[in-house]
Each structure stands twice: as C-alpha cells, then as structure tokens.
Please model this.
Amino acid sequence: MARRKLIAGNWKMNGSVAALAELDGIAAAAAHAPGVDVAIAVPATLIAPAAQRVPALAIGAEDVHMAASGAHTGCISAEMVAAAGATFTIVGHSERRADQQESDADVKGKAAAARRAGIGAILCVGETLAERDAGDAESVVTGQIAGSLPDGAAADWLSIAYEPVWAIGTGRTPTVADVAAIHGAIRAKLAVLIGDEAVRMRLLYGGSVTPDNARELLGADDVDGALVGGASLTAAKFVPIIEAGAA
Ligand code: 13P
Model:
C-alpha cells in the first residue's frame, strides 16, 4: 500500500530563536512538496516561537513526561507541549534511552501520554553496534517494539523510527538492504501486535541521513520517511531531503 512519506527533523539540544529563521525555507519547501509530510522537533523552549513563526509546519517536542501534571521538577507533559503549539513528540530516542535510562515501559507511557494529549508521536527504536555485531539487531529492535508500543497504536497518530545507535551522528549508515530487512521485521512484528493497522503505519529511517544518501535510503522497501538530526538544522541541508522524499 502507498504510504505518504514523512520527513521529520530532530534539532536535539541545538537551536535558538535566531536559528528559527531556517524554518522559513523549510516551510516554503514543504509547501512545494504537497505529497510529503514535513515535521520538525525542537527544544521545548522553541516550540511556541517556532509554531508561531511557521504555523503551516508541524512543530513537535523531543520528549514528554508520561504524567499530565504533578511533582516532577524540570519535566514537561504532553499536554504542556500541545498547549505551546506542538502537534507531535518524539519518544524513546536512543539518546534518552541511554542518557536518562528510559526503559521500554517508560517509552510506552510517554507514547500513551501523547495520545492522551491529542498529539502524534514518533517512537524510536534501534540497536547498538555491539548488538548488531552479535547478530541481534532484529531481535533487539522487535523487542523494543513489543515493549514500547502503546495501547491504541494507530497510523493516524503514531510512526516508528528505526535509528541504529551506531549510525547516529557518525556518518555511517546501514546498507539499503539492511534497512529494508529491519523495517520488514518491524512491520511483521507490528502485524502480530496490531493486525492490519501495521500496513498503514509509517516506518522512518534515522541515522546520518544527508542530502547525498536520502534518495537511496528513502527508496528502500518499507521505508516511509526519515528522522533527520544534524541535516535538519539548516534549510540548505534539509530541503534537499524533503525533495528526495517527494521524488
Ligand atoms: P543524525 O541525522 O545527526 O545522525 O541524527 C539522527 C537522529 O538521531 C535523529 O533523531
């Protein structure tokens, strides 16, 4: 089945109000690529100014707490980012799984929080280099899917991003065949968990996506978009990736 491509950016802990000027060119390119959905996740402090600056672009958060409110100093809820103008959030990014010791259960709770707040979610999974070298990539990734997929998982609000940890920010990418194999395994696992809805769910690839490799990676079987870190920080690099998604 034909799934609409989703090209999503993740600014991580980068950016400033001045850097939001990059969103102007990104929004203009998105307007000229009507067949593709474009979204950018930004640091929490930039959600409101970004949403105000480019109302046509989907602006998202990079993380949310699972609770709606409460005694969680320093945390931000899905309801709060929604009120600031976010229409989606990333959950379970490997940097948070590693740095904040987020478990699959935590990620599942965060995805459920997004649904509760009425926003979308991009749920990230991916193996480490040691896990890949041990031949465990597929079992690790499908295990993360089983452990972190929220109740009510459906394609109209949830996408999955496969981001091999060893490919993030390193300039290394898996082969197209390797990406297709893992995406196929993810979709097969989703079919077991959510039945026919698995065919509609978008599976993004993330990890060192650039203007140079985007077209090839986006052409792999079962790849329905990209989650882009470094190359999403400037229109000069992100716009060609949007165009690759539209091709
Ligand atoms: P890079 O594109 O910088 O490798 O980052 C990928 C990523 O982690 C997106 O969430």
